[in-house]
Amino acid sequence: MVKNISLKLMTTLCIIAIFATAAIASDMEIKGWEKGGEYDKLYDNTDRDVFKGRLIKITDVTPLDGMTEGVAIIVKDKEDGENVLVHLGPNDFVEPRIKDLRPGVTVKVYGVLVEIDDRFEYMAAKLKAGEERKYKFRLTKDGAPFWSLSPEDLKREEADIE
C-alpha cells in the first residue's frame, strides 16, 4: 500500500516538474527568434565557419525589426584584427547561460556568416571560451536553435556540453 502511494506521488511530482519546465520555457520572450522564422532562415547550416579571437564586449542586439532583444558579443578576429558582431540568441535564453563569460578571454566561434542590412555578422552555433567553457546555441546536425527545443531535448543537449 505504501509502495503504491509512493509510486503515485513520484509520478505526480514528475508530471508537475515536466509541465513547470515547459511553462517556463514557453514564457521566454523570443519573438522573431523562432525556428523557421525570417531570422532563423538566414542560418545556412551547410555554410558553417569557425574563427578565433578575443572577446571585447557583451552587448544587446536586435537583428531584424520587430524581434525581441538578444545577446551578442563583439570579438576581435585573431587573423585580421576586425571586430565581428556575433549573435548568440534571445536574452531570456542566453543571459542565464553566459553569466561566467567575461571580456578579455580568447574565444573560438562556430557559426554562420550572414548579411543583415549590408553588414556581415555571425550567428553563433557554439562558443568556446578559454580552455574549459563551452556554450551551445544551435544543434550541429541541422542548426536548430536551442531555445526551440523541447525541455527534454534541451536537457540532453546541455548535458553533452560538459
Descriptive overview:
With 162 residues, the protein is α+β, with helices and mostly antiparallel strands. It has one domain: Nucleic acid-binding proteins (OB fold (Dihydrolipoamide Acetyltransferase, E2P)), CATH 2.40.50. The chain is globular, with a radius of gyration of 18 Å.
How would the blueprint of this fold be written?
Blueprint: H1 2-26, E1 48-61, E2 70-77, E3 83-90, H2 91-94, E4 106-116, E5 119-129, E6 133-136, H3 151-161
Parallel strand pairs: 3-5
Antiparallel strand pairs: 1-2, 1-4, 2-3, 4-5, 5-6
What attributes characterize this protein structure?
162 residues, alpha+beta, OB fold (Dihydrolipoamide Acetyltransferase, E2P), 5-stranded mixed β-barrel, 3 helices, 6 strands, 35% strand
Estimate the global geometry from the Cα principal axes: globular
Give the SSE order as H and E letters: HEEEHEEEH
CATH architecture: Beta Barrel
Mean pLDDT: 88
- Within CATH, the superfamily carries the name Nucleic acid-binding proteins
CATH C-level class is Mainly Beta
Task: Report the strand count.
Answer: 6
Quaternary structure state of the chains depicted: single chain
Low-confidence stretches: 9-25
Distance between the termini: 41 Å
What's the helix count?
A: 3
Largest sheet: 5 strands, mixed, barrel
**Overall SS class:** alpha+beta
How many separate domains?
1
Helix percent reads 10-25%
Strand content: 25-35%
